[in-house]
Inverse folding.
C-alpha cells in the first residue's frame, strides 16, 4: 500500500498540515500531490470530491477516501497516530471525528493564523464544503 494525499497547496492550513505530517514517521509510504495540479486532474480526476475535500488514494489498489475518512486514513498511516486513528473509527468517536474535520475544513481561512499566515491565498479556502458522512471507495 502506498498512499497519495491530495491536498490544497494554496491553503496555509493545508500546507502546514503537510509539513507536520512529513515530520512524522510513516508506517505506510506517503506522497503529497496538490489537488489542483495537472497530475491530480490526470490521475485522480474521477474522484468526485477532488479539490473540495481532503482525498487520500491507495495508489496500488485505487481505493480512495475523502473528507473525514481521508483525515482518519492520514492518521492511520503515521506511527505516532495509528492508535488514535483506530479510536477515531469507533462508534463512540466517529461522529465527533466527522464534526471536527468538517469544522476545520469549513474554517480553514479563519485558522490561517494558526498556520503562520494571515489567510489563505487566492480564495482557495473559500471552497464549498459538502455535508456528508465518511466517504470511501
Amino acid at each position: 500500500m502506498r498512499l497519495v494525499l491530495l491536498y490544497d497547496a494554496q491553503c496555509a492550513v493545508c500546507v502546514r498540515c503537510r509539513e507536520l505530517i512529513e515530520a512524522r514517521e510513516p508506517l505506510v509510504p506517503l506522497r503529497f500531490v496538490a489537488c489542483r495540479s495537472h497530475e491530480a486532474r490526470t490521475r485522480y480526476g474521477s474522484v468526485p470530491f477532488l479539490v473540495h475535500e481532503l482525498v487520500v488514494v491507495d495508489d496500488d489498489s485505487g481505493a480512495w477516501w475523502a473528507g473525514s475518512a481521508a483525515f482518519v486514513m492520514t492518521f492511520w498511516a503515521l506511527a505516532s497516530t495509528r492508535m488514535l486513528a483506530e479510536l477515531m473509527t469507533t462508534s463512540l468517536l466517529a461522529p465527533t471525528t466527522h464534526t471536527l474535520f468538517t469544522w476545520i475544513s469549513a474554517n480553514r481561512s479563519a485558522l490561517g493564523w494558526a498556520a503562520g499566515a494571515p489567510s489563505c491565498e487566492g480564495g482557495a479556502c473559500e471552497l464549498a464544503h459538502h455535508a456528508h458522512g465518511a466517504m470511501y471507495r
